[in-house]
Amino acid sequence: MYRVGVLHSHPLIAWAVDRALATVPDLQVSVLDPAGPDRAAEPAAAPPFDVLVTDHASTAGKQLAARVLLMCPARPVALGADEYLHDRSSPDDLIKAVHGAALKVRSSAGAVPARGALSPREQQVLDFIAAGLTHAQTARRLGISQHTVDTHVKRIRTKLGVGNKAEMVRLALARGTRALAVTAAGSH
Question: Where is the HTH luxR-type domain (predicted)?
Answer without folding.
Answer: 111-176
